[in-house]
Write a structure and sequence with these properties.
This protein is an alpha/beta fold and about 375 residues long. Helices cover about 40% and strands about 10% of the residues. The protein contains 13 helices and twelve strands. Strand 1, helix 1 and strand 2 form a beta-alpha-beta unit.
Length: about 375
Amino acid sequence: MSAAFSGPSRGLGSELYRGAKAYFNHVNENGGVNGCQILLKLYDDGYQPDPCVRNTMKLMLEDRVFLLFGYVGTPTVTRVLPLLKKFQDEKVFLFFPFTGAQPQREPPYGNFAFNLRASYRQETAGLVDNFLRVGKKRIAVFYQADAYGRSGWAGVRAALAVHGGRLAGEATYRRGQRFTGTMRAQVEILQAASPDAVICIGSYAACAAFARDAVDLGLQIPIANLSFVGSENLLQLLTEGRDDAEKYTRFLVNSQVVPSYENTSIPAVREYRQLMERYDPAVPEELVKEPYSPFPQSFVSLEGFLDAKLMAEILRRMGGGHDRAKLEKAVFSVRNYDLGIGEPVSFGPDRRQGLQMVYYTVVEGGRFVTLDDWQGWVS
């Protein structure tokens, strides 16, 4: 696993790892998979492509890991995919990266990765469709100027085009921006376009800064974020130490690719909460370069938990041994598998994404809750 454990996006790698490790700890404590323990080898890439490439080469060629798992981010994953193609005879697959981008879902790299989460195309289409349905027709985008941002930007444009529309405006920022920075210029660019809503394709520090500055400069319209943003991290930045926090969060609407971790009627959510409390995994000390306080539960750690649960099931279906040639066959045997969230998981040679559902959340009582009534929320 190469992920962001440092830098302004460190919460994403940390939360994804914690969720996955809680489930793997549970598996290992109960005899492992086919008599083997699951070991996660971790490297930090800070959400930067070059370190991620170096980490991947080390994992494949020096550490000789069995598979790659839980990578974080489009700009990192898109740089790794050509490596997997180059070393395709080794049959090293990337499982369940934390990105909804297209490159690992389609030729020429789709055969080297398996995805669990819904795509950014599905998230952006859902946001656009719902905004249009409640009368928000002028939709602008604020996005990270890299492969991730462009993937979401393309998704919004395509969704609008279906309805005969086009972007009302757009503004970008450079990857790695911190919450302490200003997004005033980006807000002013979009203000000039008079949008009815803004869809943000970025990470939590930059998107929180944008939401803060939008409110401060009077751009009080719905601001949407994709699942990658890290909702709890975003909310913490916008609310911590503020007496007027509600004014910065009342217009937020975030799409998610897993159900709410507060919905304990869902079997996998109950299991997740129980194992997170039991194990409370911590990022290894050698990877901690800056302070980070994890959340008891989060959408990102729940996703990591589900990733690990499915990964363990695939490994179980391989039977004994460590033959990578059996891995793809084991994945394709997953048909209508009950992951415990109410949506069956299926894979096949032409289906390399397991889940399709997108959920929507808004802030109530200082936390993100499921949004069921868009018209009522807008009103």
